[in-house]
């Protein structure tokens, strides 16, 4: 396989920090919570499901805030691109080129937004859903039975969409890893990328972790307010 | 995991794509193996599986299906499939749910469905769950007998002995005031006019009906032949007239004969007689006639009696 | 309108209270709305059908109102056998029980059970009177009811009635109001509330009482209106003395004078209504007017001396006395006059065996003697007059009697009796919309438990309402935050098996 001439030969030891800790923690917490939510619903542990769902809600709210006031690579402005640009990016990928991105590439950015939107929709419908037995979402009592049932149906449909998006996400990450030799998983764990994988122009400003903590507490408060 | 970046990957794009297809396929196959309901849905989607249908007059369709519809399908049906189980058709019921078949033909004791519906009410696994109407012992017997007889989609009701007899559920129609208004529109004016003149005398039989009842008995002797005549505009809607104790006479014979919808007529203690009775022969819908305390004679009543009218109050009545 | 300082002052006083109430109701309403919106999901399978709107003109609260659906019957005559007759001596034939007469009652029937008076291990008591099949239907009946036997093909005997009350007053309340506690509306109140009255000169709901020995247990609440407006309560009438107490004019007051007083009172009431707008005021005017009209009509309806001698003889009625026979005859006269709900109580069926008049061998025989002929005469008379086809007759007590002989205080008793038995009892229905000449349901060989087609009291009520053209789930009245229903909150059903 041809090496892209634009990519300099990697040199060991030259690591650049691209992902801040809150973003990374968010990512893996979401992975864990989506899994827990699925498992708990599947096995009928609805109390667990309620808590994992509310935690997801808190995290998603946090991520929305962090997308506005967090570190550069966590901001929507950094990875939200017009469709034209996403399409152009995909075209360069198809040609085998690998333009560099410190944070999410345009297609990845779209995936982030899609996952965020779908997860948020899932959590919100979950609030109004019921399992037809003894359990119902914390807000189901405030809507009619029909609305709650409708919400439950949508909750079921969105789960399939989540599965599809997760599949696409994993396939794309695998594509980067196996085909392009671009490990995306490692940096999401360590937060660091090799300098050669980061554009020279990249100027990443990291937000203070205290801000993240504050934002997380505020989000958790909103979720708790919904429950109580 | 190495943090060393690589210039290029191990696989070519087509090879990777092939791997993805393979892994995804394997994943779907595993899911199908673990989740029979999912497998059935996929197989059905690609046309590899047909859905057996229950015959309309089978034991299933007349006895078992209705019980499922009444007690189960709100959670195991078209809109929801708890545990991926559907009981809204014969095929779905036999197919089972997430944990496999719930009905083992011929073996009620081995059928999860039987187990669940016979658990004591407090049990967490009991179905229908707490708060819903449980199946009656008779309902359980019906399902048990059906499974024991092979859980067939075609076995007729007569082939399964010992089933508790079918008990009809009384259904109440929905009240539709708009429809009733339309129904009453042609006569509403007359009813209103006559109700103003004779308060409370003519009333609709029911809230969903345009049929009327005329009860003049409470007016007593104040109600005359002329008064009865005033109700003629409503003649095709009056089903029941009570003239007991009123002042009507045989002069009303012709009026009554024009009340074409009349089913029940009470003439008790009036000055009517055979002339009226003769005129009533023209009323094809008449079913019940009370002549207690009138001058009606048996020979005059005979033709009515023969025509199927129940006569009350002639001497040998009952 | 003439200006009255007194009324002005009343209005001022009332205004503050009404404002407060108005505000309070508004607040309550908002609260109710909130709770109505916050219906938990589980409630869907409960009968949540919308309440049937019932709007009576406040100035004529008993004006006839059509039922929602085409009715099978237009009136009910309820013959309540107070004290509860023994089904085992009248309709529920148990030859096996007779075989085991005098043996100890099997333990399985006593474990975990409570009885009103039975203690320890009682003895089984075989049927006291011979049974035989009667009529074309071949229904079983004992030799104590020779007259009713001739009408047996008109009856639908339910042998599988059950109740959950084993004391008279609560059990009577359950049968008559759908709830064992005080404060609920009686059957007749519900029906006159839902249908009004055909005859504006008579109450829509009339109660008459006779007795062979003891008197009423639950008393007036059995025909009370409970949470329904009081105008729908039953009016007790008598065949001896004044038909309705305090209805006649006081001595020295003529009907014309009475009219003058009423006119004056009415005028004041109308003024009050114009000022305050309280519909109860108009209802009061309506009540006074009805009482005035009743002075003529009620006296006439209750006067059985107007009946020819053969009719009196048929019922065994004797004018001037208080008897079940007289009451049955009056019931027919009231049915003819369009009274919706006629309630006859006959007390004395409480056959414990304690005093002699409560012995199965004496008291029950007396009760049968007092009621058998008039009951049969009422059935026959209604049939001949074409009234049976749109009348429902219900006969029954409030519970059954034990297959065991009562042993009050663990002692053998002087007279033979049976204790209260809620697990099974027999009633019968006759009239429009009901299959005749059938038996419904069955008890076990000893007559202890229902083994086939159990009928709860609320099922009977649901069926009665069905026959009158109502859906028992929608005939409701909002009270204390609940849409109150005759059938209560437990699931009921119309006994479709006995419908013609």
Short description:
The complex is a heterotrimer of chains A (about 230), B (about 325) and C (about 500). Chain A has about 230 residues and is an all-alpha fold.
Query: Mind telling me the C-alpha Rg of chain C?
Result: 25 Å
For the record, give the distance between the C-alpha atoms at the N and C termini of chain B, rounded to a whole number.
102 Å
**Shape type of chain B:** elongated
Straight-line N-to-C gap of chain C: 58 Å
Gross morphology of chain C: globular
Q: Summarize model confidence as the mean pLDDT of chain C.
A: 86
What percentage of amino acids of chain C are in beta strands?
Answer: 15-25%
Helix content of chain B: 25-40%
Elements of chain C, N to C (H/E): HEHHHEEHEHHEEHHHHEHEEEEEEEEHEE
- Tell me which protein chains meet in the greatest interface and how many residues each side has: B-C, 37 and 38 residues
In terms of quaternary structure, the protein is heterotrimer
Biggest β-sheet description of chain C:
9 strands, mixed
How confident overall, as mean pLDDT of chain B?
87
Count of DSSP helices of chain C?
A: 13
**Widest beta sheet: strand line-up of chain B:** 1-2-3-4-5-6
* Low confidence ranges of chain C: 16-47
Weakly predicted, low-confidence segments of chain B = 1-7
Number-wise, the strands of chain B total 6
Number of strands of chain C: 17
The helicity of chain C comes to 25-40%
Structural class of chain B: alpha/beta
Could you describe the 3D structure shown?
The complex is a heterotrimer of chains A (228), B (318) and C (500). By secondary structure, chain A is mostly helical. Chain A has eight helices and two strands. In chain A, strands 1-2 form a two-stranded antiparallel sheet. In chain A, helix 2 crosses helix 8 and helix 5 packs antiparallel against helix 6. Chain B has 318 residues and is an alpha/beta fold. Helices cover 37% and strands 7% of the residues of chain B. Chain B has eleven helices and six strands. Chain C is globular and about 75 Å long. About 6% of the residues of chain C have low confidence. With 500 residues, chain C is of the alpha/beta class. In chain C, the strands form five sheets. In chain C, strands 1, 4, 5, 6, 7, 8, 11, 12 and 15 form a nine-stranded mixed sheet that branches. In chain C, strands 2-3 form a two-stranded antiparallel ribbon. In chain C, strands 9-10 form a two-stranded antiparallel sheet. Chains A and B meet through helix 6, helix 7 and strand 2 of A and helix 1 of B.
């Amino acid at each position: 396989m041809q090496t892209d001439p634009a990519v300099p030969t990697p040199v060991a030891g030259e690591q650049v920090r691209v992902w801040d800790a809150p973003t990374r923690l968010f990512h893996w917490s979401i992975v864990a919570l989506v899994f827990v939510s699925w498992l708990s619903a599947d096995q009928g542990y609805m109390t667990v499901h309620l808590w994992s769902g509310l935690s997801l809600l808190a995290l998603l709210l946090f991520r929305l805030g962090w997308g506005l006031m967090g570190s550069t690579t966590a901001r929507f402005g950094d990875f939200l691109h017009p469709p034209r640009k996403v399409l152009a990016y995909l075209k360069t990928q198809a040609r085998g080129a690998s333009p560099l991105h410190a944070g999410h590439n345009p297609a990845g950015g779209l995936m982030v937004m899609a996952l965020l939107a779908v997860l948020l929709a899932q959590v919100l419908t979950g609030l109004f859903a019921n399992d037809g037995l003894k359990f119902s979402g914390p807000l189901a009592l405030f809507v009619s039975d029909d609305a709650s049932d409708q919400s439950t149906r949508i909750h079921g449909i969105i789960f399939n969409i989540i599965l599809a998006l997760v599949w696409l996400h994993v396939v794309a990450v695998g594509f980067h890893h196996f085909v392009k030799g671009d490990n995306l998983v490692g940096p999401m764990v360590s937060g660091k990328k090799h300098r050669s994988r980061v554009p020279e122009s990249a100027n990443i400003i990291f937000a203070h972790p205290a801000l993240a903590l504050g934002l997380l507490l505020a989000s958790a408060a909103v979720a708790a307010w919904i429950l109580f | 995991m190495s943090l060393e970046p690589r210039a290029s990957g191990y696989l070519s794009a087509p090879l990777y794509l092939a791997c993805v297809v393979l892994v995804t396929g394997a994943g779907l196959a595993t899911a199908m193996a673990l989740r029979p309901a999912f497998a059935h849905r996929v197989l059905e989607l690609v046309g590899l599986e047909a859905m057996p249908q229950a015959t309309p007059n089978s034991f299933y369709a007349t006895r078992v299906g209705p019980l499922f519809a009444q007690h189960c399908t709100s959670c195991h049906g078209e809109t929801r499939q708890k545990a991926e189980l559907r009981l809204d058709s014969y095929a779905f019921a036999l197919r089972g749910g997430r944990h496999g078949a719930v009905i083992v033909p011929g073996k009620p004791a081995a059928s999860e469905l039987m187990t669940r519906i016979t658990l004591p009410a407090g049990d967490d696994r009991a179905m229908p769950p707490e708060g819903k109407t449980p199946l009656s012992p008779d309902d359980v017997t019906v399902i048990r007998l059906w499974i024991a007889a092979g859980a067939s989609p075609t076995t007729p009701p007569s082939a399964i002995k010992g089933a508790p007899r079918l008990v009809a559920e009384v259904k109440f129609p929905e009240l539709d005031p708009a429809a009733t208004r339309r129904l009453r529109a042609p006569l509403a004016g007359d009813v209103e006019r006559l109700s103003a003149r004779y308060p409370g005398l003519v009333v609709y039989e029911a809230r969903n009906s345009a049929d009327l009842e005329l009860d003049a008995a409470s007016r007593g002797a104040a109600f005359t032949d002329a008064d009865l005549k005033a109700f003629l505009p409503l003649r095709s809607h009056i089903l029941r007239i009570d003239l007991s104790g009123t002042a009507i006479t045989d002069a009303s014979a012709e009026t009554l004969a024009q009340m074409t919808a009349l089913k029940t007529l009470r003439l008790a203690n009036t000055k009517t007689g055979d002339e009226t009775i003769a005129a009533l022969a023209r009323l094809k819908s008449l079913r019940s006639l009370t002549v207690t305390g009138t001058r009606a004679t048996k020979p005059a009543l005979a033709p009515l009696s023969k025509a199927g009218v129940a006569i009350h109050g002639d001497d040998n009545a009952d | 309108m003439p200006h009255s300082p007194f009324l002005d002052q009343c209005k001022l006083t009332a205004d503050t209270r009404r404002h407060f109430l108005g505000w309070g109701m508004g607040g309550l309403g908002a609260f109710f709305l909130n709770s109505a919106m916050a219906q938990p999901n589980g409630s869907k399978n409960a009968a949540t059908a919308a309440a049937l709107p019932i709007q009576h003109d406040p100035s004529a609260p008993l004006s006839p109102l059509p039922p929602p659906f085409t009715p099978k019957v237009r009136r009910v005559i309820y013959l309540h056998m107070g004290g509860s007759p023994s089904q085992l001596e009248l309709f529920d034939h148990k030859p096996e029980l007779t075989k085991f007469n005098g043996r100890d009652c099997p333990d399985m029937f006593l474990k975990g059970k409570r009885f009103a008076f039975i203690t320890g291990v009682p003895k089984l008591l075989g049927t006291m009177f011979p049974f035989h099949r009667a009529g074309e239907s071949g229904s079983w009946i004992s030799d104590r009811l020779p007259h009713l036997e001739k009408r047996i093909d008109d009856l639908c005997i339910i042998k599988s009635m059950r109740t959950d009350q084993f004391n008279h007053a609560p059990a009577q309340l359950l049968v008559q109001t759908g709830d064992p506690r005080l404060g609920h509306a009686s059957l007749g109140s519900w029906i006159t509330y839902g249908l009004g009255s055909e005859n504006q000169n008579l109450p829509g709901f009339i109660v008459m009482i006779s007795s062979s020995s003891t008197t009423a247990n639950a008393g007036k609440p059995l025909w009370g209106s409970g949470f329904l407006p009081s105008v729908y309560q039953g009016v007790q009438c008598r065949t001896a003395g004044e038909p309705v107490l305090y209805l006649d004019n006081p001595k020295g007051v003529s009907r014309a004078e009475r009219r003058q007083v009423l006119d004056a009172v009415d005028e004041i009431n109308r003024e009050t209504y114009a000022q305050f707008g309280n519909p109860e005021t108009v209802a009061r005017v309506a009540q006074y007017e009805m009482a005035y009209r009743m002075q003529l009509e009620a006296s006439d309806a209750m006067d059985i001396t107007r009946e020819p001698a053969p009719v009196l003889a048929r019922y065994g009625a004797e004018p001037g006395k208080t008897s079940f026979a007289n009451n049955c005859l009056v019931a027919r006269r009231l049915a003819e006059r369009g009274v919706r709900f006629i309630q006859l109580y006959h007390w004395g069926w409480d056959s414990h065996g304690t005093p002699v008049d409560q012995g199965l061998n004496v008291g029950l025989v007396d009760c049968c003697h007092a009621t058998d002929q008039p009951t049969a005469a009422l059935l026959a008379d209604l049939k001949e007059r074409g009234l049976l086809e749109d009348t429902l007759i219900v006969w029954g007590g409030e519970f059954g009697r034990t297959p065991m002989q009562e042993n009050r205080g663990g002692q053998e008793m002087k007279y033979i009796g049976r204790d209260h038995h809620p697990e099974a009892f027999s009633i019968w229905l006759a009239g429009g919309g009901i299959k005749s000449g059938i038996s419904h349901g069955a008890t076990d060989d000893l007559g202890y438990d229902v083994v086939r087609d159990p009928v709860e009291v609320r099922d009977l009520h649901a069926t009665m309402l069905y026959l009158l053209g109502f859906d028992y789930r929608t005939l409701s009245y909002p009270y204390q935050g609940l849409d109150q229903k005759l059938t209560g909150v437990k699931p009921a059903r119309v006994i479709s098996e006995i419908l013609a």
